[in-house]
Design brief:
single chain, 302 residues, MetI-like fold, flat
């Protein structure tokens, strides 16, 4: 259909009008009473909507596959069964040895983690406040972020000796750079509108960072905290596997190393399971609660 044209008295074309389409009205289809819109959910549907139940089901399936494969291999030195591993875990846990080792590792980890978070906060605050601070953080990150933290352990042992201080040093290295990168990325992604609002209120320096940048960049900061936690946890276990903290008072890595030397492979898997269990608790409980009360509550993430 072409657009209609109008002509004036002299016959010259004037304003072009859009085509007129016929009007019509559709009648809604009758409602089908046979469809049960308010049908109550079955027990299976209600249970399957619970995230914890779904994930526990996956763990049960994996444990069953492990048990069957270990029975098929039939070599406890290569792969103990899930039942033997669970028995070793319960024995070491009730006797207190595994719990003491885990607490030793967590204590060292928290010290290094908190120091790394504090240093990262200072560096990123300087980076967003001054140009020299930005250049300083960018240079250090380019230099040290690709460097594995465990590679610094021999130097740490020379500088600080065989003990907790050496492990804290490498933990700070493991935490600092990924957290600083994610935090700085979150700060730079804050919209210019929010930045201007903060400046209009007269916020400068630390108050500007605390009131404007941190709340707006909190999703990136939480991601950096989780990545830094994962890096620090595996760095600590790797360091303890070789050096421990101070021999008999070592952590989970030392427990795994000693169990391997004594050919207690079920204890080795029990130690590895404890490492995984602590990681799951931190990821799905601590960080999850923190996200639920901040970025999810504020509608910043889905």
């Amino acid at each position: 259909m072409t657009t209609a044209e109008t002509f004036d008295a002299q016959g010259t074309p004037g304003r072009r009008e859009p085509p007129r389409r016929p009007e019509f009205e559709r009648e809604p289809k009758p409602f089908d009473d046979r469809v049960d819109v308010a049908r109550p959910l079955t027990l299976w549907e209600r249970v399957s909507e619970i995230t914890l139940v779904r994930r526990l089901t996956i763990l049960v399936i994996l444990a069953g596959v492990w048990q069957l494969y270990a029975l098929w291999v039939n070599n406890s030195l290569m792969l103990p069964t899930f039942g033997a591993t669970a028995e070793a875990f319960w024995r070491e846990f009730t006797e207190g040895r595994l719990l003491a080792m885990a607490w030793s590792s967590i204590g060292v980890l928290l010290k290094g983690y908190l120091i790394g978070v504090a240093v990262a906060a200072i560096l990123t605050s300087l980076a967003v406040s001054t140009r020299i601070g930005n250049d300083f953080l960018a240079t250090l990150t380019s230099m040290f972020n690709p460097l594995p933290a465990i590679a610094l352990l021999p130097l740490a042992l020379l500088w600080f000796g065989l003990g907790e201080t050496s492990l804290i040093f490498v933990l700070v290295h493991a935490v600092l750079w990924p957290l600083a990168l994610n935090t700085l990325s979150g700060f730079t992604s804050v919209s210019e509108t929010m930045r201007m609002c903060g400046r209009n209120y007269g916020l400068r320096g630390l108050f500007y960072v605390m009131r404007i940048l941190i709340p707006a960049a909190l999703p990136s900061i939480l991601t950096g905290l989780k990545i830094a936690w994962a890096f620090a946890w595996r760095t600590l276990i790797a360091a303890e596997l070789v050096f421990g903290v101070s021999s008999s008072s070592g952590g989970l890595g030392w427990f795994i190393f000693v169990s391997k030397n004594e050919l207690l492979i079920a204890n080795v898997f029990a130690g590895l399971g404890t490492v995984i269990l602590i990681g799951l608790i931190v990821e799905n409980v601590i960080f999850r609660v923190l996200e639920d009360h901040t970025v999810r509550k504020w509608g910043m993430v889905r």
